[in-house]
Write a structure and sequence with these properties.
With about 270 residues, the chain is an alpha+beta fold. It is built from seven helices and 14 strands. It folds into two domains: about 140 residues, Fructose-1,6-Bisphosphatase, Chain A, domain 1 (2-Layer Sandwich), CATH 3.30.540; about 110 residues, D-Maltodextrin-Binding Protein, domain 2 (3-Layer(aba) Sandwich). A seven-stranded mixed beta sheet has the order 3-4-5-6-7-8-9, sandwiched between helices. A five-stranded mixed beta sheet has the order 11-10-12-14-13, with helices on both faces. Strand 10, helix 4 and strand 11 form a beta-alpha-beta unit.
Length: about 270
């Protein structure tokens, strides 16, 4: 099966999972803490199982990396990276900063990324080399999106919500270094809100350490296809398995990398 078939499957699976998430808001039945601040609910599991069953039936030879189940190897060259419910900590408290995100890799490179959250009546979609857009699950319209042209001084940035649980103190040092140069910061705790808002120009950058592949793959592709840039803290090209990410409108990227490098040097000197 070709890429277009998988593209249609991506929209179908995402729509089904999104319906489960939407119906589950304020109706969470079970919630379990996997590690400090990291929860899974019955809604996570229902959305994930729906996706996994569909992939197992239609693309049995594709590899799968997902949030709540063991990874599955494949032989087709395609890999699905799935977060069936991003923003679980918000969701379990009835805060609608949550949604679904799925990316597709072909031979290790991201080709599709889709994100949909509960607060926007749109689907965010990117295809490698073909741009980023807002659409709906039926793909009845395509509205191209692009990053902002604001400077760092004018910038509103997002930092990872795991800053409070970072024993290394690196995120706090980065925050201390970058804050004086930006207009303001936010902590949303939800990648399906943060990455699209950079891609469509509402925010200027995301800074996060220790992300999982399902947290960043769809979003990094979305931002790059919207004209932005995504790298590691060291300025290296992003990949699904990287352990740090800076994703920005591109215009402020080098400045952010420089400030982060100075913060890391300060931390190493302590």
């Amino acid at each position: 099966m070709d890429l277009d078939t998988r593209k249609q499957a991506l929209f179908h699976m995402s729509q089904e999972a999104f319906a489960v998430i939407k119906a589950g808001l304020n109706n969470v039945e079970t919630s379990q803490e996997k590690s400090r601040g990291d929860f899974v609910t019955d809604v996570d599991l229902r959305a994930e199982n729906l996706i996994l069953e569909y992939l197992g039936k239609n693309f049995p030879n594709d590899a799968i990396v997902t949030e709540e189940s063991d990874d599955k190897s494949g032989t087709s060259g395609f890999t699905w990276i799935i977060d069936p419910l991003d923003g679980t900590n918000n969701f379990r408290r009835g805060i609608p900063l949550a949604g679904v995100q799925i990316a597709l890799l072909m031979n290790g490179r991201a080709v599709f990324g889709l994100m949909a959250n509960l607060t926007d009546d749109v689907v965010y979609f990117a295809e490698a080399g073909r741009g980023a857009l807002m659409t709906d699950f039926q793909q009845s319209y395509n509205a191209p999106i692009s990053v902002s042209k604001r400077s760092l001084h004018e910038g509103m940035l997002v930092i990872s919500s795991n800053i409070a649980h970072d024993p290394s103190g690196i995120q706090r040092q980065i925050l201390d270094n970058v804050v004086p140069h930006a207009e303001s910061f936010r902590v949303l705790g939800c990648a399906v809100q943060e990455f699209p808002y950079v891609a469509r120009g509402n925010l200027e950058a995301i800074i996060s350490n220790h992300p999982k592949s399902m947290d960043i793959t769809a979003g990094a592709l979305l931002i790059e296809e919207a004209g932005g840039k995504a790298t590691t803290y060291d300025g290296l090209p992003w990949s699904p398995d990287m352990k740090t990410i800076v994703a920005s409108n591109g215009l402020i990227h080098d400045e952010l990398i420089d400030l982060i490098e100075k913060a890391l040097n300060k931390k190493r000197a302590v």
